[in-house]
Amino acid sequence: MYFNLYKPGRQTRWAITFACQLAFVLFGYDQGVFSGIIGNEHFLDVMNHPNDSLMGIIVSIYNLGCFTGCILNFIIGDWLGRRRAMWFAMGWIIVGAILQTSAYGVAHMMVGRFITGIGTGIETSTVPMYQSELAPANIRVISYFFDYGMSFVAQPVGIAWRLPIACQMLFAFVVVVLVFGLPESPRYCYQKGRKEEALQILMKVYDRPADDPAIRREEADILEAIELEREHGEYKWRTILKKDNVQTGRRVALAYGMQFMNQMGGINLVVYYVPEALESNVGLTRNLSLIIGGCIQCMFVIGSFYPVFYSDKVGRRKPMIWGSAGLGISMMMIAILLSFNGTSIETATASAAVAFFFTYMLIFGASVNCIPWCYVPEILPLHARAKGTAVGISSNWLWNFFVVMITPILLNRLQWKGYLIFMVTNFLFVPLVYFCYPETANLTLEEIDYIFAEPDKGAVKWSLEMRKERVKNGHRESMVGHSSRRRQSMAGSMAHGSKDDGKVGGGREVQHSEKV
């Protein structure tokens, strides 16, 4: 069901952007809301004061639900389409929020969180394909300080943690209403043979007539990509590790590894458990832990401004390298300073450790937070992009679940030694990115295919040389010609090119995601 609620052109584009960002507001809110709840006394009473292992499962089962929702969406998402998948996701989230809000036991809460997670998984694997904007980083802070404010509300009993959870439904209902006025993805319509509808959508989104060169070029690109997909057949799971001329298996593995790095650096220790870490490891009071925890979350917001303005300029590799190094140093300093527990200087060193929680969150927001989300669709060839993205996103949720589940045990039983685990993983990511991950910023889709198809040099070295030439000569001309080998590379990877102007892929550069 579709209602023509928005004017063509800018208003439609803004509506799409707003709806997608609001969907990720919900994602960010869900991520942050439990951080300020798990220490609430009434919540602990209702949950019968779970031990650290059970608390880890209660929190992390949401991420397991997200993993399930991701897999579910890649099974039925093509049948649903983008708009209906968003509605479908909001339905799961609303039901899950109702169950969590009304929970009076561990099993009740876990079922609610798992169902909410399914909706979030569907949402996060749909919205990036519909519109390239990701979640504003400040949304976790909103939910966190909402939790903090509600912690002072004593009556009615339980409202301090039930109301923040219930507010998830407000965002979901607004998204449901907004989607009624949004068009379907034109690529999805072309794929389903609804060409006239797809053309009308392109005209509405860009506010241009059907014979406009930009509309015709966009239509030609989409149709050529679909034709190539049909000509060479759909990418099958069983061929995921099979070698081909564009190294598809390796590129899927790189996508998986990039999202692995996003989670295994220890970010969810800070997102979910920083008040508990400050209280149990640093020795602060509960109220001070909540306040400082909220300020630490604010550093995420500040750091996130850096990639907004500079990610395409500095590339993908450099932020991942210096970001991982910075995160490792922060974890190392936290471990060192907390290791003085039980000595005469423990108060001073524990207080100093707080500073490195701030640096950790600042660095993560500026680097490892957003790079994996834009790198995954960039590194994958077109014919494997849908399933490769599924692999990448499932990696994120699977390891998210793992980290969130074990963190309470690390904090309570290993104390400062637990931070050494994440110190090691972050330091290991530095050489991994340096030696294994090619640069993708400012390169066209075929250029990325070519660096894997060309056997003369390694993909990393090729990518750095091509990007250097691209920056030196400007963005007007592709660095790859239409030789027979390169044409075969394009066919093998399904990356489409424009035959009209002699530029590969129409000279278009890779951005964070495919735009509607």
From TrEMBL:
<keyword id="KW-0472">Membrane</keyword>
<keyword id="KW-1133">Transmembrane helix</keyword>
<feature type="domain" description="Major facilitator superfamily (MFS) profile">
    <location>
        <begin position="16"/>
        <end position="441"/>
    </location>
</feature>
<feature type="transmembrane region" description="Helical">
    <location>
        <begin position="54"/>
        <end position="75"/>
    </location>
</feature>
<comment type="similarity">
    <text>Belongs to the major facilitator superfamily. Sugar transporter (TC 2.A.1.1) family.</text>
</comment>
<dbReference type="InterPro" id="IPR005829">
    <property type="entry name" value="Sugar_transporter_CS"/>
</dbReference>
<feature type="transmembrane region" description="Helical">
    <location>
        <begin position="287"/>
        <end position="309"/>
    </location>
</feature>
<keyword id="KW-0812">Transmembrane</keyword>
<feature type="transmembrane region" description="Helical">
    <location>
        <begin position="388"/>
        <end position="410"/>
    </location>
</feature>
<protein>
    <recommendedName>
        <fullName>Major facilitator superfamily (MFS) profile domain-containing protein</fullName>
    </recommendedName>
</protein>
<feature type="transmembrane region" description="Helical">
    <location>
        <begin position="87"/>
        <end position="107"/>
    </location>
</feature>
<feature type="transmembrane region" description="Helical">
    <location>
        <begin position="352"/>
        <end position="376"/>
    </location>
</feature>
<dbReference type="Pfam" id="PF00083">
    <property type="entry name" value="Sugar_tr"/>
</dbReference>
<feature type="region of interest" description="Disordered">
    <location>
        <begin position="473"/>
        <end position="516"/>
    </location>
</feature>
<dbReference type="InterPro" id="IPR036259">
    <property type="entry name" value="MFS_trans_sf"/>
</dbReference>
<dbReference type="InterPro" id="IPR005828">
    <property type="entry name" value="MFS_sugar_transport-like"/>
</dbReference>
<dbReference type="InterPro" id="IPR020846">
    <property type="entry name" value="MFS_dom"/>
</dbReference>
<dbReference type="InterPro" id="IPR050360">
    <property type="entry name" value="MFS_Sugar_Transporters"/>
</dbReference>
<dbReference type="InterPro" id="IPR003663">
    <property type="entry name" value="Sugar/inositol_transpt"/>
</dbReference>
<feature type="transmembrane region" description="Helical">
    <location>
        <begin position="321"/>
        <end position="340"/>
    </location>
</feature>
<feature type="transmembrane region" description="Helical">
    <location>
        <begin position="416"/>
        <end position="437"/>
    </location>
</feature>
<feature type="transmembrane region" description="Helical">
    <location>
        <begin position="159"/>
        <end position="182"/>
    </location>
</feature>
<keyword id="KW-0813">Transport</keyword>
